[in-house]
Amino acid sequence: MLDSPFEFRQQINRRYFLERSGLGLGSAALASLLNPLSSRGNEPSTATLGALPALHHAPRAKRVIWLLMADAPSQLDLFDHKPNLIDQFDKDLPDSIRLNQRITTMTSGQSRLPIAPSMFKFAQHGKSGGWFSELLPHMATVADDIAVVKSVHTDAINHDPALTFLQTGGEIPGRPSLGAWLSYGIGSPNANLPAFVVLHSRVPNGPDAQPLFSRLWGSGFLPTTHQGVLLRSVGDPVLYLSNPAGVDSETRRLMLDGLSELNQRRLAVKGDPEIASRIEQYEMAFRMQTSVPELIDISKEPKHVLDMYGPDVTQSGTYAANCLFARRLAERDVRFIQVVLGGWDQHHKLPEDIRKMTRAADQASAALIKDLKQRGLLDDTLVVWGGEFGRTVYCQGTLTKETYGRDHHPRCFTMWMAGGGIKPGTTYGKTDDFSYNVAENPVHIHDVNATILHLMGINHERLTYRAQGRDFRLTDVHGKVVRDILA
Fold first, then answer.
1. C-alpha dihedral sign at 296, 299, 304, 310
2. What predicted TM-score, i.e. pTM, was given to this entire model?
3. The pLDDT of residue 409
């Protein structure tokens, strides 16, 4: 018997409730993780493997491959052709164009903001007539397969907050990334590989890249089972996945069974869903001991396929190798695949460094589109290419006819999409004559994410999670689907 009303009130709290009812809650949570379909009953074919009982509408894509060009490639030198700028060389950016918009501290101290036209030639390609720089000869061959969006804009002006915003819909760390939202919302049909896989790429002898933090593919306030799994390019693809010396698979299984029993007992007492997540992560790791080595073994890939991706495809950790792995992951129905290529942060000597980056990115990106298409996977695979912001038309540092640099520019930049419900051969949006402001059909980062979710069968306003006293969603309180680029 409780001695006082105060002691009674102490007992009737959240922790007490969870501990006393933990067996029921914990068992339900664990069953949901280990066998997501077990609680679905006789639901229609739109049923998902995640938290959503059913998709909100018919999906156009089953999976996403995001080719993340971290550090912000220059739209002016790749996609946004501005021939009239040739006559503006070394002239000051007009105040009527800048409109007192903020600029970074890296150029705010310059006495001038001189215009730096692109030194690279552009041409139209395909039946659609899309403009591509001479730096992208391979991408130009798939001009009729992609939708180029030239009017993307964002809120942040520096790399880390801009990447965080692109990935999670907020500049402040702590929110789930897009891949985690998809894993949580609709799950993944492949039980032997994570729903969300991240591949980091290196450029041999390439420019330095900005540091990336694991929270960019984290689960935020969602259960940790939904965070991205990084496949490493050196050593074991996943740390601690291999059995230690003297431990065989049977011994490992016995060990995990014993550990699972202990964790389930704790789950029954505490009712903490994170314990269920941990059990599932151990089980996933065990299954990955077989699935990951099979994934990364490309010995049976035909030579003509390897040649299509380029000479770097057999070098572990290169962008070409990771694009091939992305296709292999797509074949295995992994829900969200992110291939990261950093090194586009070209504040100085841009012409030299962007050549290195496009040599790494161009052929493999185009090969991925062609490879998916020839296998019938492009129809239900959404491919997205782009970085966190764009580059300025004005030069940072010394401007000459042979070299120039460009600062960060969130006001307008270019991304492209292909496959899974995207209208091919499309160019959408326009910038002004200086590629400084959006002139037509602005597309915010929230709009990009809303469109991706829409193509996956999800209404971005209805995929929410309650945390910190309110309902959160990937697109915060903004975002609209860009329907003009949909097939």
1. positive
2. 0.86
3. 98
Quick check: is 19 in a domain?
A: no
Report the C-alpha gap between 178 and 197 in whole angstroms. Answer: 12
The residues, any chain, with a CB within 8 Å of residue 105's CB and separated by 6 or more, are: none
CATH number (domain holding residue 195)? 3.40.720
Amino acid making up residue 209:
A
Question: Parallel, antiparallel, or unpaired for β 130-133 and 122-125?
Answer: antiparallel
- 3-class SS of residue 359: helix
What distance in Å separates the CA atoms of residue 229 and residue 214, rounded to the nearest whole number?
Answer: 10
Total Cβ atoms within 10 A of residue 290? 11
**Which of 102, 121, 130, 119 has its CA nearest to residue 411?**
102
- Tell me the C-alpha distance between 360 and 121, whole Å: 19
In angstroms, how far is CA 377 from the centroid of its own chain? Answer: 19
pLDDT tens by residue, 164-182:
999 999 999 999 999 999 9
Q: Give how far the C-alpha of residue 321 lies from the chain's centroid of Cα atoms, to the nearest Å.
A: 17
User: Domain residues for 382?
Assistant: 56-248+291-485
Please state the domain count of the chain: 1
List, for residues 349-373, the tens digit of each pLDDT value: 999 999 999 999 999 999 999 999 9
Instruction: Kindly compute the dihedral angle of the four CA atoms of residues 336, 340, 346, 347, in this order, to the nearest 10 degrees.
Output: 70
Residue 30 has pLDDT above 60, yes or no: no
Contact between residue 334 and residue 61 where contact means Cβ atoms under 8 Å apart: no
Which amino acid does the sequence have at 124? Q
Q: Is residue 322 part of a domain?
A: yes
**DSSP 8-state class, residue 315:** S
**Nearest one of 71, 73, 72, 81 to 120, comparing CA atoms:** 81
Q: How many CB atoms lie within 10 A of CB 255?
A: 14
